[in-house]
Protein backbone atom coordinates (compact mmCIF):
# COMPACT_ATOMS: atom_id res chain seq x y z
CA UNK A 1 0.00 0.00 0.00
CA UNK A 2 1.14 3.54 -0.71
CA UNK A 3 2.30 5.60 2.25
CA UNK A 4 -0.11 8.16 3.64
CA UNK A 5 2.49 10.94 3.66
CA UNK A 6 2.95 14.01 1.50
CA UNK A 7 6.64 13.60 0.70
CA UNK A 8 8.98 10.91 -0.53
CA UNK A 9 11.14 9.28 2.17
CA UNK A 10 14.28 9.11 0.05
CA UNK A 11 16.48 7.71 2.80
CA UNK A 12 14.10 4.81 3.40
CA UNK A 13 13.89 4.09 -0.31
CA UNK A 14 17.68 4.17 -0.74
CA UNK A 15 18.12 1.78 2.16
CA UNK A 16 16.52 -0.90 -0.02
CA UNK A 17 19.34 -0.65 -2.63
CA UNK A 18 22.61 -2.31 -1.60
CA UNK A 19 24.30 -0.78 -4.65
CA UNK A 20 23.62 2.76 -3.41
CA UNK A 21 25.67 2.15 -0.26
CA UNK A 22 28.94 2.06 -2.18
CA UNK A 23 29.34 5.84 -2.34
CA UNK A 24 29.16 5.87 -6.13
CA UNK A 25 26.73 8.49 -7.48
CA UNK A 26 24.45 7.25 -10.26
CA UNK A 27 23.22 9.94 -12.67
CA UNK A 28 22.72 7.46 -15.52
CA UNK A 29 19.10 6.45 -14.94
CA UNK A 30 18.16 7.21 -18.59
CA UNK A 31 20.43 4.32 -19.56
CA UNK A 32 18.98 2.04 -16.88
CA UNK A 33 18.05 2.49 -13.24
CA UNK A 34 19.53 0.75 -10.23
CA UNK A 35 17.54 -2.14 -8.76
CA UNK A 36 16.30 -2.55 -5.17
CA UNK A 37 17.38 -5.73 -3.42
CA UNK A 38 13.85 -7.12 -3.32
CA UNK A 39 13.70 -7.22 -7.12
CA UNK A 40 16.90 -9.26 -7.35
CA UNK A 41 15.63 -11.51 -4.57
CA UNK A 42 12.37 -12.11 -6.46
CA UNK A 43 14.31 -13.09 -9.59
CA UNK A 44 16.57 -15.43 -7.64
CA UNK A 45 13.68 -16.99 -5.74
CA UNK A 46 11.84 -17.73 -8.97
CA UNK A 47 14.91 -19.43 -10.38
CA UNK A 48 15.34 -21.49 -7.21
CA UNK A 49 11.72 -22.45 -6.71
CA UNK A 50 9.92 -22.14 -10.05
CA UNK A 51 12.10 -23.63 -12.77
CA UNK A 52 9.40 -25.16 -14.95
CA UNK A 53 7.02 -24.36 -17.78
CA UNK A 54 3.30 -23.77 -17.99
CA UNK A 55 0.68 -26.46 -18.20
CA UNK A 56 1.97 -29.31 -16.06
CA UNK A 57 0.21 -30.68 -12.95
CA UNK A 58 3.12 -30.44 -10.51
CA UNK A 59 3.91 -27.59 -8.12
CA UNK A 60 6.78 -25.81 -9.91
CA UNK A 61 4.62 -25.50 -13.02
CA UNK A 62 1.80 -24.06 -10.93
CA UNK A 63 4.26 -21.58 -9.47
CA UNK A 64 5.32 -20.21 -12.86
CA UNK A 65 1.65 -19.94 -13.76
CA UNK A 66 1.07 -17.81 -10.68
CA UNK A 67 4.14 -15.67 -11.46
CA UNK A 68 2.82 -14.98 -14.97
CA UNK A 69 -0.70 -14.16 -13.78
CA UNK A 70 0.59 -11.86 -11.03
CA UNK A 71 2.93 -10.10 -13.47
CA UNK A 72 0.03 -9.49 -15.86
CA UNK A 73 -2.09 -8.15 -13.01
CA UNK A 74 0.60 -5.80 -11.72
CA UNK A 75 1.57 -4.61 -15.21
CA UNK A 76 -2.09 -3.89 -15.94
CA UNK A 77 -2.32 -1.83 -12.77
CA UNK A 78 0.86 0.04 -13.71
CA UNK A 79 -0.41 0.80 -17.23
CA UNK A 80 -4.09 1.38 -16.45
CA UNK A 81 -5.40 -1.49 -18.58
CA UNK A 82 -6.78 -5.01 -18.19
CA UNK A 83 -4.48 -8.02 -17.58
CA UNK A 84 -5.48 -9.64 -20.87
CA UNK A 85 -4.22 -6.52 -22.71
CA UNK A 86 -0.66 -6.99 -21.40
CA UNK A 87 2.02 -8.43 -23.70
CA UNK A 88 5.53 -9.36 -22.55
CA UNK A 89 8.66 -9.55 -24.69
CA UNK A 90 12.44 -9.38 -24.59
CA UNK A 91 12.59 -5.57 -24.67
CA UNK A 92 10.78 -2.58 -26.11
CA UNK A 93 12.50 -2.75 -29.49
CA UNK A 94 11.79 -6.45 -30.00
CA UNK A 95 8.14 -5.90 -29.08
CA UNK A 96 7.94 -2.93 -31.44
CA UNK A 97 9.33 -4.92 -34.37
CA UNK A 98 6.97 -7.82 -33.68
CA UNK A 99 3.79 -5.81 -33.01
CA UNK A 100 4.37 -3.41 -35.90
CA UNK A 101 4.58 -6.32 -38.33
CA UNK A 102 1.51 -7.92 -36.82
CA UNK A 103 -0.49 -4.72 -37.13
CA UNK A 104 0.71 -4.18 -40.70
CA UNK A 105 -0.68 -7.43 -42.10
CA UNK A 106 -3.70 -5.39 -43.21
CA UNK A 107 -1.75 -2.37 -44.53
CA UNK A 108 -1.57 -1.57 -48.22
CA UNK A 109 1.23 -0.12 -50.36
CA UNK A 110 1.23 3.65 -49.98
CA UNK A 111 -0.19 3.64 -46.43
CA UNK A 112 1.55 6.08 -44.11
CA UNK A 113 3.10 5.98 -40.65
CA UNK A 114 3.97 9.15 -38.77
CA UNK A 115 6.90 9.18 -36.36
CA UNK A 116 8.43 12.05 -34.39
CA UNK A 117 11.81 13.75 -34.66
CA UNK A 118 11.98 13.39 -30.86
CA UNK A 119 11.87 9.59 -30.95
CA UNK A 120 14.38 6.95 -29.95
CA UNK A 121 15.20 4.85 -33.01
CA UNK A 122 13.70 1.80 -31.32
CA UNK A 123 10.37 3.45 -32.10
CA UNK A 124 11.32 4.49 -35.64
CA UNK A 125 13.40 1.70 -37.16
CA UNK A 126 10.59 -0.90 -37.01
CA UNK A 127 8.44 1.32 -39.22
CA UNK A 128 11.28 2.18 -41.60
CA UNK A 129 12.10 -1.49 -42.11
CA UNK A 130 8.43 -2.32 -42.54
CA UNK A 131 8.08 0.47 -45.08
CA UNK A 132 10.94 -0.97 -47.12
CA UNK A 133 9.35 -4.40 -47.07
CA UNK A 134 5.78 -3.31 -47.80
CA UNK A 135 6.17 -0.11 -49.85
CA UNK A 136 4.77 2.07 -47.07
CA UNK A 137 5.56 5.73 -46.39
CA UNK A 138 7.13 6.97 -43.14
CA UNK A 139 6.81 10.70 -42.46
CA UNK A 140 8.44 12.62 -39.61
CA UNK A 141 6.60 15.12 -37.42
CA UNK A 142 8.82 18.12 -36.78
CA UNK A 143 9.77 19.85 -33.52
CA UNK A 144 9.69 23.42 -32.39
CA UNK A 145 12.99 25.11 -31.66
CA UNK A 146 12.77 24.20 -27.95
CA UNK A 147 12.40 20.45 -28.81
CA UNK A 148 8.68 20.34 -28.03
CA UNK A 149 6.49 18.57 -30.58
CA UNK A 150 5.00 20.70 -33.36
CA UNK A 151 1.35 19.67 -33.08
CA UNK A 152 0.34 21.83 -36.04
CA UNK A 153 2.85 19.96 -38.20
CA UNK A 154 1.37 16.70 -36.94
CA UNK A 155 -2.13 17.79 -37.93
CA UNK A 156 -0.94 18.89 -41.35
CA UNK A 157 0.65 15.48 -42.04
CA UNK A 158 -2.34 13.37 -41.03
CA UNK A 159 -4.27 12.04 -44.00
CA UNK A 160 -6.73 9.35 -44.99
CA UNK A 161 -3.71 7.10 -45.67
CA UNK A 162 -2.28 7.47 -42.13
CA UNK A 163 -2.41 4.13 -40.36
CA UNK A 164 -0.20 4.76 -37.32
CA UNK A 165 0.97 7.77 -35.33
CA UNK A 166 4.02 6.53 -33.41
CA UNK A 167 5.75 8.79 -30.89
CA UNK A 168 7.89 8.84 -27.76
CA UNK A 169 6.00 10.14 -24.74
CA UNK A 170 9.26 11.49 -23.28
CA UNK A 171 12.65 11.95 -24.92
CA UNK A 172 15.41 9.72 -23.59
CA UNK A 173 17.92 12.38 -24.68
CA UNK A 174 16.59 15.77 -23.58
CA UNK A 175 13.64 14.78 -21.36
CA UNK A 176 10.96 16.64 -23.35
CA UNK A 177 7.44 15.31 -22.69
CA UNK A 178 4.76 15.06 -25.39
CA UNK A 179 1.07 15.72 -24.78
CA UNK A 180 0.08 12.11 -25.36
CA UNK A 181 -3.66 12.64 -24.97
CA UNK A 182 -3.61 15.34 -27.64
CA UNK A 183 -1.63 13.17 -30.07
CA UNK A 184 -3.85 10.15 -29.44
CA UNK A 185 -6.96 12.22 -30.09
CA UNK A 186 -5.55 13.54 -33.36
CA UNK A 187 -4.67 10.00 -34.42
CA UNK A 188 -8.15 8.76 -33.56
CA UNK A 189 -9.80 11.50 -35.61
CA UNK A 190 -7.74 10.40 -38.60
CA UNK A 191 -8.64 6.76 -38.08
CA UNK A 192 -5.03 5.88 -37.18
CA UNK A 193 -3.54 3.87 -34.35
CA UNK A 194 -1.90 5.80 -31.48
CA UNK A 195 1.36 3.93 -30.82
CA UNK A 196 3.44 5.09 -27.86
CA UNK A 197 7.05 4.51 -26.81
CA UNK A 198 6.76 5.09 -23.05
CA UNK A 199 10.16 3.68 -22.12
CA UNK A 200 11.58 6.90 -20.74
CA UNK A 201 8.29 8.34 -19.50
CA UNK A 202 7.40 5.27 -17.40
CA UNK A 203 10.27 5.87 -14.98
CA UNK A 204 9.05 9.31 -13.97
CA UNK A 205 5.30 9.73 -14.37
CA UNK A 206 2.17 7.57 -14.05
CA UNK A 207 0.60 5.89 -17.06
CA UNK A 208 -3.12 5.51 -17.74
CA UNK A 209 -3.62 4.16 -21.25
CA UNK A 210 -7.40 4.60 -21.00
CA UNK A 211 -7.12 8.27 -20.03
CA UNK A 212 -4.87 9.16 -22.97
CA UNK A 213 -6.51 6.87 -25.52
CA UNK A 214 -3.48 4.74 -26.42
CA UNK A 215 -3.92 1.80 -28.78
CA UNK A 216 -0.43 0.39 -28.23
CA UNK A 217 2.05 1.46 -25.55
CA UNK A 218 5.42 -0.15 -24.83
CA UNK A 219 7.82 0.35 -21.93
CA UNK A 220 10.86 -1.28 -20.31
CA UNK A 221 11.01 -2.10 -16.57
CA UNK A 222 14.79 -1.66 -16.42
CA UNK A 223 14.10 2.07 -16.52
CA UNK A 224 11.92 1.93 -13.37
CA UNK A 225 13.97 -0.28 -11.04
CA UNK A 226 13.00 -3.58 -12.63
CA UNK A 227 14.66 -6.25 -14.80
CA UNK A 228 15.50 -6.14 -18.50
CA UNK A 229 12.19 -6.91 -20.13
CA UNK A 230 9.63 -5.43 -22.52
CA UNK A 231 6.03 -4.73 -21.48
CA UNK A 232 3.30 -3.66 -23.90
CA UNK A 233 -0.34 -2.69 -23.70
CA UNK A 234 -2.51 -3.49 -26.69
CA UNK A 235 -6.09 -2.21 -26.61
CA UNK A 236 -8.30 -5.28 -26.74
CA UNK A 237 -10.60 -3.93 -29.44
CA UNK A 238 -7.54 -3.45 -31.65
CA UNK A 239 -5.35 -6.47 -31.03
CA UNK A 240 -8.19 -9.00 -31.10
CA UNK A 241 -8.43 -8.19 -34.83
CA UNK A 242 -4.77 -9.01 -35.46
CA UNK A 243 -3.41 -12.39 -36.56
CA UNK A 244 -0.30 -13.05 -34.46
CA UNK A 245 3.00 -14.54 -35.50
CA UNK A 246 3.11 -17.60 -33.27
CA UNK A 247 3.77 -21.32 -33.08
CA UNK A 248 0.43 -22.99 -33.82
CA UNK A 249 -0.01 -24.97 -30.59
CA UNK A 250 0.89 -21.97 -28.40
CA UNK A 251 -1.87 -20.52 -26.20
CA UNK A 252 -4.37 -18.13 -27.75
CA UNK A 253 -5.86 -17.00 -24.46
CA UNK A 254 -5.71 -14.71 -22.58
CA UNK A 255 -5.65 -12.27 -25.47
CA UNK A 256 -2.24 -10.71 -24.84
CA UNK A 257 -0.45 -14.05 -24.61
CA UNK A 258 -1.18 -14.93 -28.21
CA UNK A 259 1.40 -12.30 -29.24
CA UNK A 260 4.17 -13.69 -27.02
CA UNK A 261 6.66 -16.03 -28.67
CA UNK A 262 8.32 -18.89 -26.83
CA UNK A 263 8.61 -19.54 -23.12
CA UNK A 264 8.17 -16.41 -20.98
CA UNK A 265 11.12 -15.31 -18.78
CA UNK A 266 9.35 -16.24 -15.56
CA UNK A 267 12.17 -15.10 -13.30
CA UNK A 268 12.14 -11.61 -14.89
CA UNK A 269 8.37 -11.45 -14.59
CA UNK A 270 8.78 -12.14 -10.87
CA UNK A 271 11.22 -9.23 -10.75
CA UNK A 272 8.77 -7.00 -12.61
CA UNK A 273 6.09 -7.66 -10.01
CA UNK A 274 8.53 -6.84 -7.23
CA UNK A 275 9.57 -3.58 -8.95
CA UNK A 276 5.97 -2.39 -9.28
CA UNK A 277 5.28 -3.32 -5.65
CA UNK A 278 8.39 -1.35 -4.65
CA UNK A 279 7.19 1.79 -6.44
CA UNK A 280 3.78 1.48 -4.82
CA UNK A 281 5.32 1.00 -1.38
CA UNK A 282 7.28 4.27 -1.48
CA UNK A 283 4.18 6.26 -2.41
CA UNK A 284 4.09 5.91 -6.18
CA UNK A 285 4.42 8.70 -8.71
CA UNK A 286 2.27 11.05 -6.64
CA UNK A 287 5.32 11.45 -4.39
CA UNK A 288 8.03 10.71 -6.96
CA UNK A 289 7.06 13.43 -9.45
CA UNK A 290 7.39 16.52 -7.22
CA UNK A 291 10.57 15.22 -5.67
CA UNK A 292 12.24 14.56 -9.03
CA UNK A 293 11.13 17.97 -10.27
CA UNK A 294 12.83 19.57 -7.27
CA UNK A 295 16.07 17.77 -8.14
CA UNK A 296 15.91 19.05 -11.70
CA UNK A 297 15.21 22.60 -10.56
CA UNK A 298 18.14 22.48 -8.16
CA UNK A 299 20.44 21.25 -10.91
CA UNK A 300 19.40 23.95 -13.38
CA UNK A 301 19.69 26.68 -10.74
CA UNK A 302 23.18 25.59 -9.71
CA UNK A 303 25.10 25.06 -12.94
CA UNK A 304 27.23 27.87 -14.29
CA UNK A 305 26.68 29.67 -17.59
CA UNK A 306 29.54 27.62 -19.03
CA UNK A 307 27.36 24.49 -18.87
CA UNK A 308 25.03 24.47 -21.86
CA UNK A 309 21.68 22.66 -21.50
CA UNK A 310 19.96 21.59 -24.71
CA UNK A 311 16.21 21.63 -25.10
CA UNK A 312 13.67 23.16 -22.75
CA UNK A 313 15.11 25.78 -20.38
CA UNK A 314 13.27 24.71 -17.21
CA UNK A 315 11.39 21.79 -15.71
CA UNK A 316 8.04 22.56 -17.30
CA UNK A 317 7.30 19.99 -19.97
CA UNK A 318 10.18 17.68 -19.16
CA UNK A 319 11.33 14.85 -16.92
CA UNK A 320 14.66 15.26 -15.04
CA UNK A 321 16.88 14.24 -17.95
CA UNK A 322 19.39 16.73 -19.33
CA UNK A 323 21.75 16.84 -22.28
CA UNK A 324 24.65 19.19 -21.56
CA UNK A 325 28.09 20.26 -22.66
CA UNK A 326 30.79 22.08 -20.70
CA UNK A 327 32.47 24.92 -22.58
CA UNK A 328 35.96 24.00 -23.68
CA UNK A 329 35.82 20.41 -22.40
CA UNK A 330 34.94 17.53 -24.77
CA UNK A 331 31.96 15.49 -23.62
CA UNK A 332 33.95 12.27 -23.41
CA UNK A 333 36.45 13.97 -21.13
CA UNK A 334 33.65 15.29 -18.91
CA UNK A 335 32.27 11.76 -18.53
CA UNK A 336 35.72 10.35 -17.78
CA UNK A 337 36.61 12.98 -15.21
CA UNK A 338 33.28 12.61 -13.45
CA UNK A 339 33.75 8.84 -13.37
CA UNK A 340 37.11 9.42 -11.68
CA UNK A 341 35.13 11.30 -9.02
CA UNK A 342 32.74 8.31 -8.71
CA UNK A 343 29.91 9.89 -10.66
CA UNK A 344 28.14 8.06 -13.49
CA UNK A 345 27.16 9.98 -16.64
CA UNK A 346 27.46 9.10 -20.32
CA UNK A 347 28.86 10.85 -23.37
CA UNK A 348 27.39 9.90 -26.75
CA UNK A 349 26.69 11.33 -30.17
CA UNK A 350 23.02 10.57 -30.95
CA UNK A 351 21.53 8.81 -27.92
CA UNK A 352 19.68 6.76 -30.57
CA UNK A 353 17.54 9.85 -31.24
CA UNK A 354 18.62 10.22 -34.84
CA UNK A 355 15.93 12.75 -35.72
CA UNK A 356 16.90 14.99 -32.81
CA UNK A 357 20.67 15.05 -32.68
CA UNK A 358 21.32 17.31 -35.66
CA UNK A 359 18.94 19.96 -34.35
CA UNK A 360 20.66 20.62 -31.01
CA UNK A 361 23.79 22.41 -32.16
CA UNK A 362 26.63 20.34 -30.75
CA UNK A 363 29.19 18.98 -33.20
CA UNK A 364 30.43 15.72 -31.72
CA UNK A 365 28.98 14.46 -28.45
CA UNK A 366 27.04 15.62 -25.43
CA UNK A 367 26.77 14.45 -21.83
CA UNK A 368 23.50 12.98 -20.62
CA UNK A 369 22.53 13.41 -16.98
CA UNK A 370 19.43 11.81 -15.54
CA UNK A 371 18.01 11.96 -12.05
CA UNK A 372 15.58 9.48 -10.56
CA UNK A 373 13.80 9.25 -7.22
CA UNK A 374 16.68 7.59 -5.34
CA UNK A 375 19.05 10.48 -6.10
CA UNK A 376 19.49 12.97 -3.27
CA UNK A 377 19.82 16.73 -3.04
CA UNK A 378 23.37 16.30 -1.77
CA UNK A 379 24.25 14.17 -4.81
CA UNK A 380 22.90 16.82 -7.15
CA UNK A 381 24.95 19.47 -5.36
CA UNK A 382 28.10 17.35 -5.72
CA UNK A 383 27.46 16.93 -9.44
CA UNK A 384 26.83 20.66 -9.93
CA UNK A 385 30.04 21.50 -8.09
CA UNK A 386 32.02 19.02 -10.20
CA UNK A 387 30.61 20.38 -13.48
CA UNK A 388 31.29 23.96 -12.44
CA UNK A 389 34.87 23.10 -11.55
CA UNK A 390 35.33 21.56 -15.00
CA UNK A 391 33.92 24.69 -16.58
Layout of helices and strands:
Layout: H1 10-14, E1 25-26, H2 37-49, H3 59-79, E2 86-89, H4 92-103, E3 112-116, H5 125-134, E4 137-141, H6 151-157, E5 162-168, H7 180-189, E6 193-197, H8 209-212, E7 216-219, E8 230-234, H9 236-239, H10 266-281, H11 285-302, E9 307-310, E10 321-326, H12 331-340, E11 343-344, E12 346-348, E13 366-370, H13 377-390
Parallel strand pairs: 1-11, 3-4, 3-5, 5-6, 6-7
Antiparallel strand pairs: 2-8, 7-8, 9-10, 10-13, 12-13
Helix pairs in contact: 2-10, 3-10, 4-5, 11-13
Number of domains: 2
Largest sheet: 7 strands, mixed
Strand arrangement, major sheet? 2-8-7-6-5-3-4
Terminal CA distance: 45 Å
What is the CATH C level class of the largest domain, in words? Alpha Beta
**Approximately what portion of the residues adopt beta-strand conformation?**
5-15%
Mean pLDDT: 96
State the CATH topology of the largest domain: Aspartate Aminotransferase, domain 2
Uncertain runs are none
**Shape call:** globular
Number of strands: 13
User: Do you know the CATH architecture of the largest domain?
Assistant: 3-Layer(aba) Sandwich
Walk me through what this model shows.
Helices cover 37% and strands 15% of the residues. It has 13 helices and 13 strands. The strands form three sheets. A seven-stranded mixed sheet has the order 2-8-7-6-5-3-4, sandwiched between helices. The chain has a four-stranded antiparallel sheet with strand order 9-10-13-12, covered by helices on one side. A two-stranded parallel ribbon has the order 1-11. α8 (209-212) links the parallel β6 (193-197) and β7. α2 packs antiparallel against α10 (266-281), α4 runs parallel beside α5 and α11 runs parallel beside α13.
Amino acid sequence: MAQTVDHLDVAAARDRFSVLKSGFLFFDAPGGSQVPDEVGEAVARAMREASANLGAVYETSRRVGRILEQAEFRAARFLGCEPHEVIFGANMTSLDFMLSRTAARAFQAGDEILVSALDHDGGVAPWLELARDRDLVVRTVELREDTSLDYEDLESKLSERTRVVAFAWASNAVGTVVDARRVCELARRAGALAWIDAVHYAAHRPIDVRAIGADVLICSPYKFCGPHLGVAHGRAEVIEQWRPYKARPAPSTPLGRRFETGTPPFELLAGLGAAIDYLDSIGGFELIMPYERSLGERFLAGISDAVSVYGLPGMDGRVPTFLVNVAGVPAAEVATRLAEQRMAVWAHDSWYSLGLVGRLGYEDQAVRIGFIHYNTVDEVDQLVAALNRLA
